[in-house]
Each structure stands twice: as structure tokens, then as C-alpha cells.
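FORM 12-B: Structure-to-Sequence Request
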């Protein structure tokens, strides 16, 4: 770890009230159970359902992420409620689902996010993923905690005004952290973009960041960054959206 200069320490002290913990997934290339937390691979599916298909091309969507709440860090265990959170996303290039469905905006029909209760599921057994060019499976075997801080624009909304040099300093220290992570603060590429819940209009709560070409061999536009959010009042309202430069 690099030693922080006095100026950096001063800055972090000034914004200490906004400090949150971000957890980076530690992964292993292996085949995990359908109940485990992972990127890609075979998710938990009910015996009587099809693998979720894209609302545009009707093909099976990539499993971007599955999180089992029981495997999350203790402090973050209730982040989305309890059960298995799944994120499906269509990357079918030939039919340009991402563009046609404007999947950078929330609630695109080429995506599906849901929370399953394993107790209510009769598990479907699949040997092979039906997804065309499925990503390599990476099982999340641990979580690495680190401090995280919001970007200068978000700090300003929280009543802390940074000058240009301080904003630069924050960015250079990699706050908010880039890469895949659970919680912490979103590394917004454009402005602050918490989606609004279609039911109540409230800003949705940030849960997980999927960055370009970190654990998934995928790029959102031009090195964009995606965020998974959920309405606190309507936990079934979950979405993924992204922005790039
Ligand atoms: Zn599609
Ligand atoms: Zn809501």
C-alpha cells in the first residue's frame, strides 16, 4: 500500500463521514454449484423454466452475475434481501440487442434481474450452458474489503465542496474504486445516475458495480461501467444500467 501524503490524508479526513466499505470479489476459475456466487456459469433455475431469454432476439442471455446473500460479507449480508440475486444480460452482437434495447438505460428488455428464494425452487440440472459463447465461469470465493469514497460531484450533493486539486487527488487515489465491487460508491463515468423506481419514483440504491473487462470479458461501450441497483421500497425492482465516455 502506498503511503499517503499529508494533503491526501487531510482530504480523506475532510470526507471521512462519507467513507464506505467496498468489497472486491476474489474469484477462482472453476465450476461452482448453482447456488454459489459467481460470474457466468450455470445459475439456479427452476426445473420448469427455460433459461431466461432476451426480449429482443429471444436467445438465452449471458449470466453476468449471481450473488448468494448467505455468502456475502457479514456487514453486507442484507444488501438486497435474502436469496439468490441474478443478473442476465444479452450481448448478441448480430442483432445488436444492447443498442436496440438501449441497455445502457435501466430496465432494458435485453436484461433480467431477479431474486430467487432457493427454498421455493426445484432445481433444474444442466450440464452445459445453452448460452452462445458463454463467458468463462468464475466462482467468487472471498471478498476483499477496502475503503471507498464518492466522487467529487456526489460529494458536492452531500454538502462537501472539493476544489479542482482535491478532486484530482481523489481520482488519483482511485476513489471511487473502479473494477467489480460490492457496495462502496459507484464510479460514475458520466454524471450521477441512480435510476428511479418505476413504482415510487425514488432513487434506487446502488448494490454492485460491474466494470468493463474485469471479471467478465466484456466491454460496456467504450470502457463503460455498469451498476446494479434496487428500490429499497420495492425489492423486486432491480436493474442494471451503464455509461461510458
Ligand atoms: Zn438479445
Ligand atoms: Zn420503489
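FORM 12-B RESPONSE
SEQUENCE OUT:
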Amino acid at each position: 500500500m502506498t503511503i499517503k501524503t499529508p494533503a491526501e490524508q487531510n482530504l480523506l479526513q475532510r470526507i471521512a463521514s462519507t467513507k464506505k466499505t467496498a468489497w472486491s470479489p476474489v474469484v477462482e476459475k472453476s465450476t461452482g454449484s448453482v447456488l454459489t456466487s459467481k460470474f457466468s456459469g450455470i445459475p439456479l433455475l427452476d426445473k420448469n423454466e427455460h433459461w431466461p431469454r432476451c426480449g429482443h432476439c429471444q436467445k438465452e442471455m449471458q449470466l453476468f452475475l449471481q450473488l448468494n446473500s448467505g455468502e456475502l460479507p457479514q456487514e453486507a449480508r442484507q444488501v438486497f434481501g435474502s436469496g439468490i440475486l441474478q443478473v442476465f444480460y444479452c450481448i448478441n452482437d448480430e442483432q445488436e440487442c444492447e443498442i436496440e434495447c438501449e441497455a445502457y438505460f435501466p430496465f432494458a428488455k435485453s436484461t433480467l434481474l431477479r431474486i430467487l428464494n432457493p427454498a421455493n425452487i426445484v432445481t433444474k440440472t444442466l450440464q452445459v450452458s445453452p448460452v452462445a459463447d458463454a463467458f468463462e465461469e468464475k466462482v467468487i470465493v472471498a471478498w476483499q474489503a477496502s475503503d471507498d469514497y464518492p466522487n467529487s460531484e456526489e460529494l458536492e450533493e452531500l454538502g462537501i465542496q472539493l476544489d479542482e486539486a482535491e478532486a484530482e487527488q481523489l481520482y488519483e487515489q482511485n476513489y471511487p474504486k473502479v473494477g467489480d465491487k460490492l457496495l462502496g460508491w459507484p464510479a460514475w463515468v458520466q454524471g450521477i445516475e441512480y435510476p428511479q423506481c418505476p413504482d415510487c419514483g425514488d432513487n434506487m440504491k446502488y448494490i454492485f458495480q460491474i466494470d468493463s473487462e474485469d471479471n467478465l470479458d466484456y466491454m460496456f461501450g467504450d470502457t463503460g461501467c455498469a451498476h446494479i441497483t434496487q428500490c429499497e421500497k420495492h425489492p423486486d425492482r432491480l436493474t442494471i444500467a451503464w455509461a461510458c465516455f
